[in-house]
Target: Acylphosphatase
Amino acid sequence: MCPLPLAAAAVAAPRAPLRLLNRGLTAAMSTARSLKSVDYEVFGRVQGVCFRMYTEDEARKIGVVGWVKNTSKGTVTGQVQGPEDKVNSMLECSGLI
Model:
């Protein structure tokens, strides 16, 4: 079953560096590319199927940072930050867009 996003809001402005798996956004901020930050919540069967682990692995491969966590409602919520093209790749491979 594919996870379906309820809401995603994008902001193309730099924010304070977040850390995901000991990687900061500092390197991305030094580039001339525009940055993007997306907050998301995923509904459906996303807990107990390694969705968070998959998301962290893909973020590491693509080169974005952020966070992801389970909620008490049975959903997964998170944030992805980085260069716009990499954030878009992350959203596509995770099925969020």
